[in-house]
Amino acid sequence: MIRPGAIEFLANLLLFLSALVLIVDIAPRDFLPSHKARARAIEVLKAKRNVLGPMPQGVAVVPETAGMQVGTDFETYRVLVEMIRENSPLAKDVEWGSAVGVGYAALSLPVGNNKLEAFRPLYVALSPAGEATVLRLIPVGQLHDLDAWIGRWHQGSLTKTALALLALGFALQLIRPFFK
What is the Cα–Cα distance from 12 to 174, expressed in whole angstroms? Predict the structure, then answer.
């Protein structure tokens, strides 16, 4: 038989854990490999600016300028494409069968004697069509959208976890009188 004291203890423990999850700001999804892969992919993109995935036969990418950063990382590319397809309202405009890379540009505005990176459009690079020799860039958002998407994913997991613990704790408190 279940002791009423045990149910009360478990109920209070669940209520305490729901508050602790919110205070410490740790969601269960933060420990999943997919979350770590997403965070890593964003950092790689910020460092390289352009990340290429698998290239079609006969297509070689050559940077247009000496300062243009391009890196090949299949796993980062796959994770970024997954995030964009799940979250970007502009993903429907991309011919995903032709996609070969993800990148962002930095558009600067003059501020006094300095420049400020004001806009960082995020794009998907598509392989050249027909006789063209230049990759086609399709905008899918801003660079900061990636951080917002991963933050929304974290917040959703955090809220659902705290709500589940809270509901279970209160449910146990409600049924406790029936075990006396």
Answer: 12
